[in-house]
Amino acid sequence: MSKSVKLFVLGAVALAGAFLSTSCAFPLPLGGIYTNITTPVTVGSGDLKYNRCGTASCYSILGWVAGGDASLNKAALNGNLDKISWANMKVVNYLGIYGSYTVEAYGFGSKFGPDESLRPAKVE
After folding, report:
1. What is the pLDDT of residues 69-104, one digit of tens each?
2. 10 contacts: CB under 8 Å, gap ≥ 6
């Protein structure tokens, strides 16, 4: 085999090894090419009733640049929540190039939001 073929094979093996080892011990199920999942967050009373929902997001680009505030506190503030019943986390990732992470907090609030309305309570 020529030297350039050997270097190509070695590079391909190194790249495959790096690609396959990137999601080891990560708390979320990640797809190597595309991820679009919603997972629960352990918080709140677990009551399935709510009259408000607040969201907060952050992003990541190539793992080099990241920004935003996806905390439960920010989601509660954005939804004018006084009490959190439960929360979900949505993850969307494209090839590890761009990732979006959104926390959705569901609960109760007595203050009016920016649109001066309250969502009707959802009962399951």
Report:
1. 999 989 999 988 888 888 999 999 998 889 999 999
2. none
